[in-house]
Amino acid sequence: MYRYDEFDHAFVAGRVEQFRDQVERRLSGELAEDAFKPLRLMNGVYLQLHAYMLRIAIPYGTLSARQMRMLAHIGRKYDRGYGHFTTRQNIQFNWPKLSEIPDALADLASVEMHALQTSGNCIRNVTADHFAGAAADEVADPRPYAEILRQWSSVHPEFSFLPRKFKIAVTGAERDRAAIQVHDIGLHLKKNDAGAIGFAVYVGGGQGRTPMVAKKIRDFLPEQDLLSYTTAIMRVYNLHGRRDNKYKARIKILVHETGAEELSRQVEAEFAELKNTELKLPEADIAAISAYFAPPELAARAEGWANLAEWKKADPAFAAWVRQNVQPHKHPDYGMVTISLKPIGGIPGDATSEQMEAVADIAEDYALDEIRVSHEQNLILPHVALADLEAVYRGLVAAGLATANAGLITDIIACPGLDYCALANARSIPVAQEISTRFGAPERQAEIGELKIKISGCINACGHHHVGHIGLLGVEKKGAELYQITLGGSGDENTSIGEIIGRGFEPEKVTDAIEVVVDTYLGLRLDPSETFLAAYRRVGPQPFKDALYGDKTAAAA
Amino acid sequence: MADKVLTANRLSDGISVWLDAAGNWNEQLQDAFVARHKEAVDALEATGKQAFADNKVVDVNVVDVEEVDGVLRPLRMRERIRAEGPSIAYAAGYAGLTATAQPVA
Amino acid sequence: MTKIWNEAGFVADDPWVIETEDTSAGSNEKAILGLDAFLARVAETDETGLGVLIEPADDVRRLDGHLDRLALVALAFPAFSDGRAFSHASLLRSRLGFTGEVRAVGDVLIDQVPLMLRCGIDSFAVTNPTALKRLAENRLPGIANHYQPTARPATEAGSYSWRRRQTPAA
Q1: What integer is the mean pLDDT of C79-101?
Q2: Which of A180, A196, A223, A227 is the most buried (most CB within 10 A)?
Q3: How far apart are CA A88 and CA A43, in angstroms?
Q4: ipTM of the predicted structure?
Q5: Do B9 and A350 touch (CB under 8 A)?
Q6: Which residues of A touch C142 (CB under 8 A)?
Q7: Does C contact B via 3+ CB–CB distances below 8 Å?
Q8: What pLDDT is recorded for position C30?
Q9: What is the pTM of this model?
Q10: Are A378 and A406 in contact (CB under 8 A)?
Q11: Please, are residues C85 and C93 in contact by the beta-carbon 8 Å criterion?
Q12: Does domain A134-291 sit in CATH 2.60.120.560?
């Protein structure tokens, strides 16, 4: 993974001092709140319901054991002993004191971490496939390009006061695990017929109040043009994005109102001017950054095959965990492990400082010191020898992190919601907990198969409910919480926005409604291999509407 | 007119606070001063504006409450959660609020 | 009270006045005209040394071909959160090649001054008390290491092609 050089260290140290100065001026009153707010947002500091919230950047979701231990330390020293991993591969702490945040940032800087641009109307964390560098189906590792974009976008003076936030995602396989089509810019790393590396470029995807699927504006952008092309898009957006209405300020609205063809023309015109400037990426620089992401030395560990078969026979719980949470790796003796942060009935995406340290220990001992955060709020160990899976599993069991539910119905994505967030209209976590408990039995989960439930507590859609197979949107109606159900959303390479299927459900009725949806699916699927999403796409919403709202049902309403 | 209290978040640590009868920013809603008529509400708003200008608090708001059996209850769920804390226990394995109640060394 | 600042310090006797419906330049003053008014003036006269105000929604490229008539381009920041003028400045310098004075007017705060300088803005109409104080002390809150080339040239960092370092003051 990327390692800071002197330049990076000096930058982050300068940034910490800059923010320390801003905080001092705020606390002394020299800097008023309305001038301070965009500055603190650009450093990931929110004001939430109960306290400030600090969102720390985990660039493209990659971190080392040492960095994970520092996050555990931050949780203990500056917070209440736990953190929350987010749908943009970052981590949030819910109780930091403003006066202590500069010290926390200094601690983070010592392990090459920061909270820069995790909020505010600027370019945010560039996210990437959480299986990058390990997945069997990968064409090329997207992370070097995510790192180049991360550097280039850091305190970019032209693009620090955009109409609104700006999110970029990069994927390097045909299967899109980074949800690029619901990002402001989505980049699909690929090779052309000549074997050259470049990107398909998508613009104007997003969720929130008006979910939209991105439009492809370039089939193939050569890699050396990455920064000049991105500059062109950003400049067009900065100049022409709407600033009159906060809810119409994202680039997706600009694409929609201008038309993808015209917008593409404007981008290409600006790009033509920038193409051969100093923004062109030299091959040597791409190679140098890529070298940080060279595949690790993976020793042959063929004994793992036989070991694995034995352990699975001896321990059905272990076998279930392997079946559900371990994915094929490029190297046949290895697997990619998903550490579920979704214990049955637990808070999706949360981990205690002790759990973070357990993950760090396991990563160091068995996973070549590499950890990922997925946008589905789980942790990943991308390189684990099959021969070490049993030891990893025991370590995870001891830390309460061995729930065998990756991708299953209890692997719920939920935003913090009204329990924490000042923007929320309804709670998400208790809904997730109840659904998880209702469907917690392993046999039930196995019977249902792959089913992604995503819950947002408000229209901002931080829970990504629009791309949930089942999406839940919490709203406030007459002072009470109400949950709208959407069905058939997906954030993969066949992105679709979920369809609203009818009136919402009160908190006490939501779980029953989900049960009706699930039972309807089980009743109409062709066979167990037809997933919920596939079945929905085959039959459409009507059977589910009938089941939930028709006269025949006893449940719901 | 509903009864009202003045609430905000402390600037230095962001903790939710309510203005009490002594004019202090108090972490307990139940100690909040309740304004029951317009003049009192106007005074609350003025106090809030001043406290914001004095850089003691941020995000100052007057919120509706009702008194039920001597207990103050905000009318909006959002404000009830602000007063009572998250409606869920923290992450599994979390040792409880009292475990981190002391300032960490 | 508004003062004009550039990297040499505060400017005494700045002659420029932004012309509005209520304000016109006096006899010892020079007018900063709105874009349409400037283009009309350029078409109708031979005057040089003019000043123009670019609002956020203006297309700064309309100045192309008339730069030789301009001494000053003022860029409006009606609210500091409106970042369009950063792009105006960048285009003015790097695309149009303007070498005259580029001035930020409006909501100019100390924390944005380093960013404005990097985009090619070289003078500032400052009203905010903290900004005035910090500029008087020459204490700008910027970071010397830059991760991107900008309209204002900076020193190569001897590293990746996109990195720069703030050029030390002469």
Answers
A1: 97
A2: A180
A3: 16
A4: 0.97
A5: no
A6: 18
A7: no
A8: 94
A9: 0.95
A10: yes
A11: no
A12: no
